[in-house]
Protein: Receptor-type tyrosine-protein phosphatase F
Amino acid sequence: MAPKPAPGRTMMPLVPALVVLGLVAGAHGDSKPVFIKVPEDQTGLSGGVASFVCQATGEPKPRITWMKKGKKVSSQRFEVIEFDDGAGSVLRIQPLRVQRDEAIYECTATNSLGEINTSAKLSVLEEEQLPPGFPSIDMGPQLKVVEKARTATMLCAAGGNPDPEISWFKDFLPVDPATSNGRIKQLRSGALQIESSEESDQGKYECVATNSAGTRYSAPANLYVRVRRVAPRFSIPPSSQEVMPGGSVNLTCVAVGAPMPYVKWMVGAEELTKEDEMPVGRNVLELSNVVRSANYTCVAISSLGMIEATAQVTVKALPKPPIDLVVTETTATSVTLTWDSGNSEPVSYYGIQYRPAGTEGPFQEVDGVATTRYSIGGLSPFSEYAFRVLAVNSIGRGPPSEAVRARTGEQAPSSPPRRVQARMLSASTMLVQWEPPEEPNGLVRGYRVYYTPDSRRPLSAWHKHNTDAGLLTTVGSLLPGITYSLRVLAFTAVGDGPPSPTIQVKTQQGVPAQPADFQAEADSDTRIRLSWLLPPQERVIKYELVYWAAEDEGQQHKVTFDPTSSYTLEDLKPDTLYRFQLAARSEMGVGVFTPTVEARTAQSTPSAPPQKVTCVSVGSTTVRVSWVPPPADSRNGVITQYSVAYEAVDGEDRERHVVDGIGREHSSWDLVGLEKWTEYRVWVRAHTDVGPGPESSPVLVRTDEDGRRRRGGRAATRLDPSPPAPGPWPPASPEGRVVPLVLAQGPRPGR
Structure:
């Protein structure tokens, strides 16, 4: 059995295979010439062109010569074009002459081993002698310019009878598409298509039409192949990248031009692409285990120049602390800071943290600072602060810098001296004492005591007594038996602070001074606590307290109690503003009452329910409930909402339901989804922020029958707070029944 061919291979017959082996074996020795292409007889047109092609093979390579009538061809109209190192030759005759060129032309191939001959006959006809069907060129090739690597098509159309065959000559040599690896094709139309054109394709092309009647050449047409020359440019320049420490990143660089440029990568002066490995047009740099930031340069090179583009690869990391933090300016309420980034990598923004110096509390922070200079305002005067700065990048917040301290400038005090007290040392001399202001805003240089028997006059018209930074002083030369008003202020090097609240003192020896620092604060909805400072070295035997509700100025209450520094009033009305005055009494008499202070008791739940609660049936499943708010003196606060509770007396659903969150602006509400022809109890209550008040007395209402409704709705019955248990009246009916029904105030019959 003959062996089967392996896949993709063709089995050759045995005899031809031996012939091939013989040829291969003989190829290593000399051989006589053998024609592989011989000239053919032609009939040409006077004034036209005729070409004879002859080619031979042999070892050594033979030479081709042409003979006419036994003589070597020689004429200005005869041109011999050699190819294949002289083993091929074209005899071209142009222009053809009748009779003169008609002859037998002989091709001789000669090498050292021998000589062979072949011949062809040329006939030349005048135009009027052309036989019918002689080839005609209907459309010849035209001048064409094509860009290198583009496709060029040389057109040709011919007629004749029989249809002529078309062939092509380039620069007087025959075009053989079979030797172009498919790049050059002759189309069925006769056109010559040249793909991926090369500079060698440039030349003079002729289209030749041949049939049994003769041969006709087209006019020649030149094909020019132009190499477009464009300087290199980046079509995709490298882009900067960020990478985590130890991460990987690819940098892509694409350049174009004509000719196409080579592309390489560099970092600094170091070449990253080997000279003999430079790709054309596109180069991707693959970086792995990146631990430091660097600039990478893509270089594109062609014969027309060199261009560069740089991409920055940034290794992501938290920023370092800023450095050189300095306080450059201070005012009483602001500090200006400057610093240096301290980072070579980009910083998104900065954060400034600060807090009072010497404290361990949390830092306040100013975020999103874009510059390295910033002023922080809103600081307290004459206060020392600690400041530090941190940097933020795309990874996160870096550690803060070392803290710096700065003290703001002085300002006039923004609060008055505290707990100002005064008492008489004699009938004309008083002792005044106080505590420093809470917000001195600087170093207190001293105090000014203002006093006057007429508090209606402006402060600038009061008597003034200056003292140093001490906390007490005496004021003399007072008129006996007069009540003086007194105020104290502190001052710094910048200016005066505000004066303290007015206190009064009576210039009567032995009469107690006005209680100092009198304050009122609500403890609950019914209790207010009063407090004051006990006067030093005073013989107080009683305190007298006067108070009243702000809404009822005419009804004042007076309480007398033993010496103490606080007192609590109880059983007050909730959510009520009260006003208070206090005076001390000694054996010599009652001192001056304090200025009025006030406090409001806390809110409570309402002590009365909503009033005038009514219910009306407005359908077989809906009841409208209406009310008015509780009396003003029973609300005990601001009414914030209402709730409505209801339950069926004789229906299937006997559970109690509550509708909460009815806004304070409502005075009615519709209960929907009720059972038909069913009696309900309804309650309403009011709420404050503290909670709900009592429920109203229940109101009875019956929904309408199905499909029946009385004009104006069905009235309701208000029940006593504790009604007897309802009996089965009227009998329940799922869809209702027509019965006489009288609704009236008070209990129903049968109850």
User: Anything to note?
Assistant: Helices lie at 14-26. The longest strand covers residues 114-125. The radius of gyration is 60 Å. Residues 418-506 form a domain with the Immunoglobulin-like fold (CATH 2.60.40.10).
